[in-house]
Amino acid sequence: MRQRGNVLRPGVVGVGGVALLLVLSACGSSGSAGSAERLGTPVATVPHGNGVTPSSGSGAEPTVPTDGPEGATAAIVVRSYQDWWGAQADAFGKSDSDSSQLQLYSTGQALSDSVASLHQLHEAKLVMSGAPRNAPIVKALDLTAEPQTAVIEDCLDVTDWHQADAVTKATKDPKQRLSRYVATVGLRKAAGRWLIVDFKREVGRTC
Q: pTM here?
């Protein structure tokens, strides 16, 4: 977990702590304009990816078993992360959304960053259009900790997720934006749910 992404500013969108220079993902509801498509992932329990595989430079090899109790929990962790992206994509795609759905999937710094980005999008009269894509891998899982924790490494691709005018829908992307990069995500289990607590982009790494 290295450099934290920037919170959204007009021309620079940071999605739920997922800060990127333009736009970013959510994967709870694929196929709609505000949802994120799955890039494809080595995690066998997340099928039907779109075939975009992280390059060897991303270091995205699973280090958590994909079977047994750890494998089952890893699948739930990934689904929670995808649902978080889905909530962000949906909220960021509307000019009148609030932060209620973001609170279902995140807490701490991740939630604070998402809410700040949402507010700044509204203030700038912008929305996100299109869809981000990702390829999450569970890199660490501690089921003995209290609370239980997990770390995801993701290859995030926001090439097709654009910043747009909330009224005209005209694309308002910044001149320079980071469209694909590695992200490290921290999660913890609380009240029976896995919540995203931290999202950091690894700007020096490709995928």
A: 0.74
